[in-house]
Amino acid sequence: LAKTTQPISMDSYEGQEVNITCSHNNIATNDYITWYQQFPSQGPRFIIQGYKTKVTNEVASLFIPADRKSSTLSLPRVSLSDTAVYYCLVGDKDSNYQLIWGAGTKLIIKP
Amino acid sequence: DVKVTQSSRYLVKRTGEKVFLECVQDMDHENMFWYRQDPGLGLRLIYFSYDVKMKEKGDIPEGYSVSREKKERFSLILESASTNQTSMYLCASRPAIERYEQYFGPGTRLTVT
Question: Do A43 and B45 touch (CB under 8 A)?
Answer without folding.
Answer: no
